[in-house]
Amino acid sequence: MTTQMLEDLRDHIIARLEDDIFEANIAVGELTLVGRAESIGKILRFLRDDPECLCKQLVDICGVDYPARSKRFEVVYNLLSFQQNLRIRVKVEADEDTPVPSVVELFPSANWYEREAWDMYGIYFSDHPDLRRLLTDYGFSGHPLRKDFPLTGFVEVRYSEEQKRVVYEPVKLTQDFRTFDFMSPWEGAHYILPGDEKAEEKAS
Known about the structure:
By secondary structure, the chain is of the alpha/beta class. About 20% of the residues lie in helices and about 25% in strands.
């Protein structure tokens, strides 16, 4: 689809959803719409059913975390139209307390995508039929793709021979974090490496 065709499509969408979409950009041959979270169902229904769009396939839903923003999350919906040979991306903003309406009724494939966004980011989708964790365990604490989630996590899992079951324990690092000198291996170290002192003893 040419840039002119995308611009015409953008104007067509904005004219019909002017109260629901407040930004529309074209980049790298794709149209990106930024809309209101409470209107996501209306927006996606229009993009699915409108003859100029016919985005019948929801390819993905993903989250993005911007902790410094008041609404820290972006929920990104990637749509595909086979009939129009077209991709459209829709973004809405959300925070930890305000739910985003589920679109499972419009696109059944959204079921697991929304569960993954809830599990990884803590983005809550209202009216979801079965909003449970998908990739982590039911007893998992936190949401691991948030920028403020610690790299080591909060707990570690192991199998206990004594209890004959999987147990959760606070994270214990078996060694301190290593410090690196970032020297070139071609120049050689400016200090004696462990084990090299034996070679010097033999030489003397």
